[in-house]
Amino acid sequence: MQKIDFDSQYFNPKDVLECGQVFRFEPYGKGYKAFTTDKACYVYTDGSRTVIESDYPDYFYRYFDLGREYAAVIEEIKKFNVPVITRSCELGKGLRLLNQNAEETIFSFILSQNNNIPRIKGIIRRICETVGEKRQFMGEDYYTFPTAARLAERDAAFYKALGAGYRDQFIVQTAKRIAAEGIDELYTLNSADLKTRLLSYHGIGPKVADCVCLFGFGKAASFPVDTWIEKIYREDFGGTLKDRNKINAYFTSLFGEYSGYVQQYLFYCKRQNL
User: Fold this and answer.
1) Distance CA 156, CA 2 (A)
2) 35, 70, 99, 234 — which has fewest CB within 10 A?
3) Which residue in 93, 121, 195, 207 is the catalytic one?
4) Residue 106 half-sphere exposure, CB side, CA atoms within 13 Å?
5) Whole-angstrom Cα distance, residue 184 to residue 247?
6) Contact 202, 188 (CB under 8 A)
7) In tens digits, what is the pLDDT along the chain, a chain of 274 residues?
């Protein structure tokens, strides 16, 4: 087991893991156990430092985006001179955008639509326990997230029985497509083309596509729009548009390559009622 430690001012594990961008984590000890693909880590804050313990330090260094200077990102965002955003950056400076596995992100956010976080976490946990492989971390069992090929081996009824509901067909059809085609080409696409391609997958609409672009492919020009963002748009930006695609276009035209960061800071503060 190796350790990484980082300035906790710009890395708050609770804010990073509980802001809706990821679902495979659980409270443990002084912080959390976090799981991604077939890997696990223990992350916690110890005074002024946030510590990651894992057998895969390089992986989690990238996963938590520790190579990026978020103080500089925040300074750039403040240049937009929008008071609600400046305030959100200051209050949410412990946030970081995760660099997640793209396949896992696709299936996780297909399951996330019209759903709540505890239920999403439960469905994903059951899928991992029944289709994934058992591993151990810090003396306890955990399960890997299955590959698309493994997911494609099961039928829709199997996923419905695990609680996926109407999303059962989406999991099966998208798993079969990814198992057949792979996703390597998706990494070569720009933000707009990637979103268009993702929209061609069963069960992926505009909001899910933006989440996958942002959290699975690192496309920071993406701006997912959900009910919280609609509320922010109306209450804090005086917006009158009703169409989420138009709201998305409004924000991305304003914030460009910083759209994803702005979205997370705004989303965090509105959800926390700060």
Assistant:
1) 40
2) 234
3) 207
4) 29
5) 30
6) no
7) 999 999 999 999 999 999 999 999 999 999 999 999 999 999 999 999 999 999 999 999 999 999 999 999 999 999 999 999 999 999 999 999 999 999 999 999 999 988 899 999 999 999 999 999 999 999 999 999 999 999 999 999 999 999 999 999 999 999 999 999 999 999 999 999 999 999 999 999 999 999 999 999 999 999 999 999 999 999 999 999 999 999 999 999 999 999 999 999 999 988 887 6
Contact between 222 and 212 (Cβ < 8 Å) = no
pTM: 0.94
φ and ψ of 256, to 5 deg: 50, -125
Report how far residue 76's alpha carbon sits from residue 68's, in angstroms, rounded to the nearest whole number.
13
- Those residues whose C-beta lies under 8 Å from the C-beta of residue 231, and which sit 6 or more positions away, are 270
Residue 119: count of CB within 10 angstroms of its CB: 13
**Count of Cβ atoms closer than 10 Å to residue 45 Cβ:** 18
**Known catalytic membership, residue 134:** no
- Specify the pLDDT at position 274: 65
